[in-house]
Amino acid sequence: MPLPETIAVKYTEEEAEYLSMRPLVRQTFRAPELVDMIVQVAGKDSARLQQILRAGTIVFHSFRYWWQGFDPDAAALGEILATYPDADPSRPFRAADCVEVILESSGSPPRHSMRITKEVAAKSSPLQKIARALRNQSSFWQALMNFAAEARPRYREYSYARRGDLYSIALSPDQIARLAREASRDAPRTLRAELLEPPAISQIVFVCARATANGIAPRAPSS
Asked: Which one, of 19, 25, 39, lies nearest residue 67 by Cα?
């Protein structure tokens, strides 16, 4: 059947290992909005998305969502999925597109990760601004971008959850030490403590934004 114009959805905070006593909240989604939420979890996989739409449930950002399951029309679903980008290993890394850096430990998924957004890493206290001006130095964010330019990150994948292409660098002990030195000198105070004692960081991931054709923003509730 075609995708319904609107879908009544209920959600509650997911609680592992025991029955949730959180209140249920009701919300109405347009079909592209519900599909967008599922894509962020399951990726651009038509067969898997059809299975989830039929099952009528998914966990997203620590919330479980339910709706009356339905069998979606493959052509209608394909039209929505066509608005999403595909992975493109030929895309070169561009610092201007980078919006976030993630420090990761080993393991799949990583046992530990630390997200550093451009907005936070580019901040400076008044004293840091003066000191950098005297030394003719840039922000910690610029230091990260300089590091990327030298190390040349390799393309990993397109992330539908982060709405961007991911590039990564496997870090050597010397590179980890260099990042720690730059953090001690240039990082904002809010980041410095974590950056100076990273728990077995093994790689750095750069998230480069790529606009989607649908322009849909995720509708995750606040926790």
From this structure: 25
Q: Are residues 120 and 193 in the same domain?
A: yes
C-alpha to C-alpha distance for 51 and 72, rounded to whole angstroms: 9
User: pTM here?
Assistant: 0.81
The range of the structural domain enclosing residue 70 comes to 6-81
pLDDT tens digits, residue range 125-159?
Answer: 555 454 444 454 578 899 999 999 999 999 999 99
Contacts of 94 (CB under 8 A, 6+ apart): 208
Give SS3 for 65: strand
Helix, strand, coil % (nearest 5) of the chain? 35, 25, 40
Domain identity same for 65 and 136? no
